[in-house]
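Blinded run. Sample ID left blank on purpose so nobody reads anything into the name before looking at the predicted structure. Input follows.
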Amino acid sequence: MELNVINIKGEQTSKKVELPDSIFGIEPNDHAIYLDVKQYLANQRQGTHKSKERGEISGSTRKIKKQKGTGTARAGSIKSPVFRGGGRVFGPRPRNYGFKLNKKVKRLARKSALAYKAQEQAILVVEDFSFDAPKTKEFEAIRKNLKIDDKRTLVVLPDLDTNIYLSSRNIPKSEVITLQELNTYEILKAKSLVLFESSVEKLGELFNA
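Blinded prediction complete.
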């Protein structure tokens, strides 16, 4: 798949890049995408939820009423879950929601997500640029020039550029990540995928690693 390279003014340049068919031209695997996104979201969960069970409640251990003759059910502890203020039955406990996923499945999922973006013609390749200092207005101007200022965008850098990252941080619907951070969830969430020209060259190396 061949795409024209666009400059930061939104104009087409004379350069073109070839997106590898081994990545962008594959038949997407929906189940691999499901598993990868599920793992990503599971890893975002803190898992610090906790409620007290009857053995952890503060309170007297005396028998609260006699066993027989009250006309009601027998009761031995005020900490019982049937009483207000008692412990919770089978309450949540701290746990790790993460699970193992093979590298090949994760790689297939990312390829599938990129292939979907290629099918939707939602990929832009931009000439590499940088800022001398964080400049949010300039970054927003670039988004307007590329006509993606009203879309949720994902900008993929070849390497970390702190100034570009800080310039985009306060802009709604805009996310900047490096190639190493590229993940299925972020790709699918974005309506437009913006690749730096040098990012395209490194994509093949990343997926063949």
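Unblinding after everyone has recorded impressions. The chain has a mean pLDDT of 90.
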